[in-house]
Write a structure and sequence with these properties.
Length: 488
């Protein structure tokens, strides 16, 4: 099988624990470099959601008039559903040792995957745009800091973390968790004991299905949107890693913090009357113990900056995969750094032009991400767990002439059918004065179930079209692939 330069790395990977930046990007990670540990996954994804964005997510339901109990219930259900998809994607990393989007070439083709990469890149950029808006508003509200300087400083810190790469992302998240967890526990104790302030809501709140599903969908989208890159952070784990243990570690890590902080955010919005999550954290914490709120706000903001670094790292992998799908490239360290800097300039510019409030920005971004990613996640998971059951010819994923081809009509068809099925059920939030509610959604009183429809339809469509796959040819290609990899 022809080999392209995309599967090679010019410089060996730095050993775990050194100060060197990561050298690998979109290439395969050999067994000798698999130094990760399962227990690292729980803290990574716990802290990935243990920050200001998650608190603000709890403001979605109250902004639509949903009471506290129903907001928390919708948030919990959404997080559980979304995290299941995320956790199953994580199990692909140790099996293949590849970034998620490289593996997706098996469903969409070497060049066809570019369609999915566009939606994935939108996710990374969308998160960092929303994060920058949140941090600029929040830190200005808490400390009076200049929103412009906050945006510049957070972008630079995120870039630095992304440049150092995989090991340093894990390391930064663990240390931030160790420091921020006790503060957030204390603040929560203040809320539960009634010493953090709070009062009955000053305006009328009432249950509606539209508001409930909006909060549910936003929470589900939050962790589903990790799906395109969750295996990027598990690909350094040994092949012998237990899938069940890994899925459990990711699931409980990512869902535990999200459920906690969404509930806290809902309380801040309704009982404390906060208009901004970071300001609400400061007020609630300082009501309980002077200085606690300010410290919790700073740590929550730093955790969000670390998440921005994670997004920049994943965005870099996505861009390089897209370029490599059109024209083969060497995944050098210079290419990584230049791509990260370019992405930072883009999200900084877009975020600087946003005029909507933070909660509105979050809801709009998450809704669009969900519509774009759900048909992909359905196709990818059905292929991995049902159709091919984790068996792929890895070297063929790096050439358009391999067994997976340049364009795979099966995956592209399933994605297209799934996305098209979503359109009548969509409820798009306001986008610069333009909005859209599909005819089916209108019949459901504005309730948005588009992503559920897209998920089911795309999965069924792929199952049908995958019946014509020539598995014997793939089996032969896998044998050759394993021989090539073993020789490196």
């Amino acid at each position: 099988m022809a080999e392209t330069t995309s599967t090679r790395t010019e410089v060996p990977e730095a050993p775990s624990g050194t100060l060197r930046a990561e050298t690998r990007s979109i290439d395969w990670v050999p067994d000798a470099e698999r130094h990760g540990k399962i227990w690292h996954q729980g803290p990574l994804w716990f802290l990935g959601n243990f920050q200001y964005f998650t608190v603000a997510l709890g403001f979605v339901g109250p902004s639509l008039g949903l009471p506290l109990g129903q907001t928390i219930l919708a948030g919990v259900l959404g997080i559980v559903v979304g995290t299941l998809f995320m956790a199953f994607h994580a199990s692909q990393g140790p099996v293949l040792g590849l970034p998620q989007m490289i593996q997706s070439r098996a469903q969409f083709g070497y060049r066809g995957v570019v369609l999915v990469l566009i939606g994935t890149l939108f996710t990374y950029l969308g998160f960092n745009v929303a994060d920058q808006v949140l941090l600029a508003e929040g830190l200005h509200g808490v400390f009076g800091w200049s929103p412009g300087w906050v945006a510049v400083g957070t972008a630079l810190l995120a870039v630095l973390l992304a440049v150092y790469g995989h090991d340093w992302v894990h390391r930064a998240f663990r240390w931030l968790l160790y420091v921020s967890l006790p503060l957030m526990v204390l603040l929560t104790v203040g809320v539960l004991t009634g010493q953090a302030g709070g009062h009955a809501p000053s305006h009328h709140l009432a249950f509606t299905w539209a508001a409930f599903f909006a909060q549910f969908s936003a929470a589900a989208a939050y962790n589903i949107t990790y799906a395109p890159y969750v295996s990027d952070y598990s690909r350094y784990l040994p092949r012998t890693t237990s899938p069940r243990a890994l899925i459990a570690s990711v699931f409980f890590g990512a869902s535990g913090s999200a459920v906690w902080l969404i509930a806290l955010g809902a309380w801040l919005a309704i009982r404390l009357g906060a208009a901004d999550g970071l300001v609400g954290l400061r007020d609630a914490g300082d009501n309980f113990i002077p200085g606690l709120g300010a410290a919790a706000a700073v740590l929550s903001a730093l955790s969000l900056v670390a998440t921005m670094g994670m997004n920049a790292y994943g965005g870099m992998l996505t861009v390089l995969t897209g370029i490599d799908s059109v024209r083969s490239i060497k995944p050098t360290q210079t290419a990584r750094i230049v791509t990260i800097l370019g992405l930072a300039a883009l999200w900084y510019t877009v975020a600087s032009l946003i005029t909507a409030d933070a909660v509105s920005t979050i809801f709009t971004a998450l809704t669009l991400m969900l519509y774009l990613l759900v048909p992909w996640t359905a196709t990818n998971l059905v292929d991995f767990f049902v159709v091919r059951r984790g068996h792929y010819a890895i070297t063929d994923l790096f050439t358009p002439t391999g067994v997976y081809g340049a364009w795979s009509w099966r995956g592209l068809t399933a994605y297209g059918i799934g996305f098209a099925a979503e359109i009548p059920f969509m409820v798009l939030p306001d986008l610069g004065g333009w909005h859209y509610t599909g005819p089916a959604a209108q019949q459901l009183a504005g309730t948005d179930i588009a992503w559920v429809v897209g998920l089911v339809v795309a999965a069924l469509a792929y199952l049908v079209v995958a019946r014509s796959l020539d598995r014997s040819t793939e089996t032969a290609a896998m044998t050759v692939s394993e021989q090539e990899l073993a020789a490196r």
